[in-house]
Write a structure and sequence with these properties.
Strand content: 35-45%
Number of helices: 5
Structural class: alpha+beta
Number of strands: 19
Low-confidence stretches: none
CATH class of the largest domain: Alpha Beta
Mean pLDDT: 91
Length: 311
């Protein structure tokens, strides 16, 4: 990597400034949004001054019961987001300042939690919404790819980019209601690809970091927000159809459960979630059913054919 002394970037709808390099945010950045987040990093400290008696609002654990990450809150102090493997992050209640405590973790580890959980949480505090989705821009319009973990959202997004789309977001899609329309905002220029996924076309990938589950690769991201007019929910299951099948996604629960964050439950946030879901319901919402063996190229081809046939 080349020398990087500081970071100024726009991601998740936030104008982020940091006095140290943040490699997971390095690269060309979209137009500033006007919503600021100042990050300070404290390598020689721990988040030990967090007030006692904070409320535990999230306790995310792995299959073996070990703690993945936790979120605590105190009204006057903001939010503590931390994990045994990732260090700690103290996010102000207004989402405008963030103190990071790597606690000896490598950049590729503590910055993974930063982009996966902390920055999306900050976006919520700024009045935006976040969906559990990857996304691309195709023909000037954003396409959201939703589904549970391991549904293949990221590999499908990368496959669509090989067909000419622009990468917009990986796993967390930031949304903004603007003038009665819904816009999808660029995330980070990083995609997390599962380590067991291998593609001979990926030999030139710029791998930023590797962990037990995934390779973090740099991608050329979309330069600007794009209007969201299509949402595809991926329903991948062992007994699914051999060829992808499309159906209208008319169930309101599909949209309401698409949020990436079930933790922040203030009246303002819930009102914003309902507004975003209402706007999303006016877009094209479809369910894609497929089998576990359906490949990303096959799924991307079916999706593009579906789009072209209804254009």
């Amino acid at each position: 990597m080349g020398q990087l002394l500081s970071t100024t970037a726009t991601a998740f709808g936030l104008d982020i400034s940091s006095e140290i390099p943040l490699w997971f945010l390095a690269g060309p950045s979209p137009t500033p949004s006007g919503r600021t987040l100042a990050i300070s990093t404290h390598f020689d400290q721990a988040a030990s001054h967090w007030p006692p008696g904070a409320e535990l609002i999230c306790d995310e654990r792995g299959p073996d019961g070990s703690v993945n990450f936790r979120i605590e809150t105190r009204p006057e102090a903001g939010y503590l987001i931390y994990g045994p493997a990732y260090g700690a992050h103290l996010l102000a209640a207004d989402g405008e300042t963030l103190r990071c405590f790597p606690e000896g973790r490598p950049d590729g580890v503590w910055q993974r939690l930063l982009i996966a959980q902390v920055l999306p949480f900050a976006a919520l505090l700024h009045g935006l919404e976040v969906f559990h989705a990857s996304a691309v821009v195709h023909a000037g319009q954003a396409i959201a790819l939703l589904g549970p973990s391991r549904a293949g959202k990221t590999t499908l997004a990368l496959e669509l980019c090989r067909a000419g789309a622009s990468f917009l977001a990986d796993d967390v899609l930031t949304l903004e209601a603007r003038g009665g329309s819904l816009y999808a905002l660029p995330g980070t220029p990083i995609a997390g690809v599962t380590r067991d996924h291998r593609d001979e076309r990926d030999t030139a990938q710029d791998v930023v970091a590797v962990n037990d589950r995934e390779r973090m690769v740099r991608v050329a991201g979309a330069a600007e927000p794009a209007p969201l007019n299509t949402l595809f929910f991926i329903d991948r299951r062992p007994d699914g159809p051999e060829s992808p099948q499309f159906a209208s996604g008319t169930d309101a629960q599909i949209l309401l459960s698409a949020t990436f964050n079930f933790v922040l439950a203030t009246p303002e946030r819930l009102s914003g979630l309902l507004e975003v879901c209402s706007l999303a319901a006016r877009a094209r919402v479809e369910l894609i059913s497929c089998g576990s063996a359906t490949s990303a190229p096959e799924l991307a081809g079916a999706l593009l054919q579906r789009l072209s046939s209804s254009a």
